[in-house]
Amino acid sequence: MKKLLSLLLAGVMCMGIASCGKTETTGADTDSDLAYVTDKGKMTIGITLFAPLDYKDDNGELIGFDKELGDAVCEKLGITPEYVEINWDSKEVELNSKNIDCIWNGMCITEERKQNMSISEPYLKNTQALVMKKDKADAILANIDGIKLVAEQGSTGEGKITGEIEDDDTVVVSAKEFFAGANYTGVDSMAKALMEVKSGTADAALVDSVCALAMTGEGTDYSDLVCNMDNNFGDQQYGIAFRKGSDLTAAVDKAISELYADGTVEEIAAKYNLTDALIKK
């Protein structure tokens, strides 16, 4: 009988210890994300491909501002970066399931995202650009009604078009109202949105200005496209997203501050023509 009581008591104690591994407010595991990535020796970074943040050079090697900054941060943390392409519309699912440890790919900071994830200090400025063929731009801007419009699913551009991302005091023209008469379709990446416009299957794309300015114009694969930002659908800032409550956020912020102090961030930005877009620490 005493043995049975001892076993029961031990079981209750184990349950109590296990419950202490969860926070009372959220039920989230209290294990350190910093310890998690340090123990496995790498940080898995979720990305999509678009210049000048993450893209491949002529040899198929991944390059870009975010890629090089990610490399430098991981070196500071003593771990290896692992870059994994994700579906942008499923980014939060990938993060919370631990398929990736952060989303680092030109992600605009929004109130909804701040509620669902832990987000770093902002590091780049952005806005939305309307991309069109040069020879159609005047006609499209004169009358948006009926045009075929595309944007990346889950992007800020899509959120602005649908109204899921509310306008703030930086907005001059509401994208939801401006594109009310357009025929909108979501696509799986910003690069795909530009391809749709180039091929003529879409009339215009709403994409991040950081992407549009780097990927269109003379000397690019999209030299026949132009980007227009006259309407100012609002200012955005890029941040790096981690799991809610993650201690990786502060560690990465600290590493980036140190990389600003030694000139590394500005050196990388200059390489990709992003100096003016930097949000300096």
What does this structure look like?
With 281 residues, the chain is of the alpha/beta class. Helix content is 38%, strand content 22%. The chain has twelve helices and twelve strands. The strands form two sheets. Strands 1, 4, 5, 6, 7, 8, 9, 10, 11 and 12 form a ten-stranded mixed β-sheet that branches. A hairpin with a 5-residue loop joins strand 2 and strand 3. Helix 3 crosses helix 11 and helix 3 packs antiparallel against helix 12. The N terminus is likely disordered.
In the predicted model, the low-confidence regions spanning at least 5 consecutive residues are 1-29
Strand content: 15-25%
User: What is the average of the pLDDT values?
Assistant: 89
What structural class do the secondary elements suggest?
alpha/beta
What quaternary form is this? single chain
What is the H/E string?
HHEEEHEHEHEEHEHHEHEHEEHH
The total count of strands amounts to 12
The main pleated sheet reads as:
10 strands, mixed
Q: What's the overall geometry?
A: globular
Count of helix runs: 12
Helical percent range?
Answer: 25-40%
Radius of gyration in whole Å, from Cα?
22 Å
Quote the distance from N terminus to C terminus. 66 Å
